[in-house]
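Table S7 (text form). Paired inputs.
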Amino acid sequence: MKYKIIKNFLSDDKNKELLKRTLDIKGWKDSTIINTTSNYRKSKVIYHLDNDIIVLFEQKIKELYKDVLSELDMKDFDISKIEMQMTSSNNGDFFKVHPDADYKRGRGDVKNRKLTFVYYYFTDPKPFTGGNLKIYEFSDDSRTTHNSLEFDTVVPENNMLIFFESDYWHEVEEVICEPSLENSRFTINSWIQ
C-alpha cells in the first residue's frame, strides 16, 4: 500500500483560521453512509463548505496532485471534480472499514473517485486519543476486499494531510475525548476524480 503524508500542509495562520471558523459552525449534521450494516459510522459533518475553504484546498491540491500520482504509482489523470466535506469526530465516533471508491459496483461519484485526501486539524495540545487512520492491504489483485491482518496505522497530527488511492480499504478508530466540539478530531475529506 502506498500513501503520501504532507506535514504542515497549510501555513500556521491558515490552520488556526480554519480551526476558529470550524468551531463557530452551527449546522453540523449526523454523518450518513449507504450501507445495510448498522453502527457503521458515527461523526458529524458539514457537506457544503464555504467557497474560500474549497478554493484554499483546491489550489494547493492542483499544484501537488501530479507529483502525488507519480509517488503513488498511479496513472496520470486530469481532475474533473473535487468533492469535499468537513468532519468532526468526537467522543465515541468512528468509521468502520470501507473504501471511498468501488469501481466495480459503485454508483455515481463513488464509482469515479480516484484519489482521496484527508486533512487533519484540531486544538493544541491534542485533546483526544484514538482517531487513527488504518489503511489496509488488499486481499488479492481484484482490490475488492482487504486483508485485516496487513495494515498501516497513521496517527493524526494537526495540519497534516494524507493522500491515498480512493479504493484502498481504511477505517477511523474510535475517538476518545471529553465530549465538546472543541475537543474534536476535525478533518477536511476530499475525493478527486
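Next pair, protein 2 of 2.
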Amino acid sequence: MQLHELTAVIVFYQGRKDLLECIIALIKEGLEDIVVVNNNTKIKLNVVYPQVRIVQSSSNIGYGAGVNLGVTFVDRKYVLIMNPDVIVTRGSVRVLIAALKRLRVVAVGPRLTNMQGFEINQVGTKTLTPLLAIKEMSFLAKIFKRDDLGQKWGEVELIAGACLIVRRDVFLEVGGFDEKFFLYFEENDLCKRIVDQGYKIYHEPKAVVKHDWRPGKKSLGSSKEIFEQSRFFYFRKHYGLIWALMVEFWVRF
C-alpha cells in the first residue's frame, strides 16, 4: 500500500549521513513524497531519489520555521514531521496513519527509542504548566520521583516534535509552529494550541521509531541559551510574565 496521503517534512542543518539513512528508511516504507528543508546555506544537498524534493531556506531559520516552510510545499492530507536523525522502523508509518484514521484524532506520535532500542522520554505526554515545570526542571526533581511529565499511551496532551504525523489542515488552522521558537518547546506550544482548539492527540505504542538523540547533541545550532529563551517565551506566551519569571527563578535556583 502506497502512502499516497502523506508527505514527510524533514528539517536539515547538519549530519548528511543521518539524513540519508532517514530518507532511505522512509522510502523503504513506501513514502513517495519527501520534502527536505535545508537550513544550512553552507551545505549543498543533492539527494538523488525521485521521491525527494530539496527546499533551500535563506538562512538557519530554526526548526519550527523550517517545518512551516516545508509544509508550504505539501498538498497532501497528512504531514510527517521528523528530525533527520530519526529512523522509522518497518511498518511504523502505516501504524501511525491507521491510528489517525481509526481514532479520528488529528495528530499522532510513535514510541521513541534510542539507537540501542531503549525507550526515551524527551518531553512527556502532559501539557507543560508552570507548576509542572518547577517540579520537573528544578532541584525538586531530585527530591520527588521525576515521572510527572508522563509517558502514557493513548489520548495525550503532548507528543514529541522529533517525529509526529499531523493533519495538514489542522496544522495550518492553528498557525503551524510558532516561529519565535528557534528550537525547543515548539512542540509543547503546538500541541497546547491543538488541544485548546478541542482536537485530540494520540500516542501510539505499536509504532516504534529510533532517534539518535543524546543530551548535548548539537543540532540547528542548539545551545543552553536557546533552550532558556524558548522556555521563557513558552511560559510567557501561555501563562503570562509573572509565571514565566517564577519558572525561571525556580529552575535556575
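The chain has a mean pLDDT of 90.
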